């Protein structure tokens, strides 16, 4: 009788430990709009402001900040100087691809006025914006070296936020 009780208690303890460990390993739920964290980032091809075609898959093996923005968007304008600072200090293993969703406006003038040097891509047919299910701008996807979405940030970011999310990948 004592052996059966001891075995039952031991089994209960082992099950409790297993359940607690499983719960600790679960990721936080992704309730934000757009593609889900943990999924594969869909490949795409867009032209940059110089007219050259750029593909997401060109950057396999690098960490990518895929940012969706517009020239008329105040939070987008707010984060651009920090994005430029981050780009200048990030190194060769990190890439920023800033997808402009309003190329009918003077994007080149915006780039010049803001002093931006990171790649700006033009989503002329709203294809990539739709593919990534962007509902609000700015939205940034943080994509790891294997092409997996590791973080998503909806709103203007600071340089510190960019650094933290890239370090976490």
Please describe what this structure looks like.
There is one protein chain. It is built from five helices and seven strands. The chain is an alpha/beta fold. It has one domain: Glutaredoxin, CATH 3.40.30. The chain has a seven-stranded mixed β-sheet with strand order 2-1-5-4-3-6-7, covered by helices on one side. Helix 2 crosses helix 5. The longest helix is centred in the N-terminal third of the chain and has 24 residues, at 2-25. The relative contact order is 0.20. Mean pLDDT is 86; it is low at 21-27.
Pick out its properties.
7 strands, alpha/beta, 21% strand, seven-stranded mixed β-sheet, 169 residues
What's the topology here?
Blueprint (H helix, E strand, L loop, with lengths): L1 H24 L19 E4 L4 E3 L7 E7 L4 H17 L3 E7 L6 H8 L5 E3 L4 H5 L7 E5 L5 E6 L4 H10 L1
Parallel strand pairs: 3-4, 4-5
Antiparallel strand pairs: 1-2, 1-5, 3-6, 6-7
Helix pairs in contact: 2-5
């Amino acid at each position: 009788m004592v052996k059966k009780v001891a075995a039952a208690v031991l089994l209960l303890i082992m099950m409790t430990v297993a359940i607690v460990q499983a719960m600790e390993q679960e990721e936080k739920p992704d309730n934000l709009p757009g593609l889900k964290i943990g999924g594969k980032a869909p490949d795409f091809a867009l032209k940059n402001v110089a007219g050259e075609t750029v593909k997401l898959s060109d950057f396999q093996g690098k960490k990518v900040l895929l940012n969706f923005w517009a020239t008329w968007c105040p939070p987008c304008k707010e984060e651009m100087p920090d994005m430029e600072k981050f780009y200048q200090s990030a190194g060769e293993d990190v890439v920023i691809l800033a997808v402009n969703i309003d190329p009918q406006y003077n994007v080149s003038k915006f780039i010049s006025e803001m002093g931006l040097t990171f790649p700006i891509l033009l989503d002329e047919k709203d294809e990539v914006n739709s593919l990534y299910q962007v509902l609000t701008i700015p939205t940034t996807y943080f994509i790891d070296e294997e092409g997996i979405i590791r973080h998503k940030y909806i709103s203007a970011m600071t340089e510190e936020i960019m650094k933290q999310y890239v370090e976490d990948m």
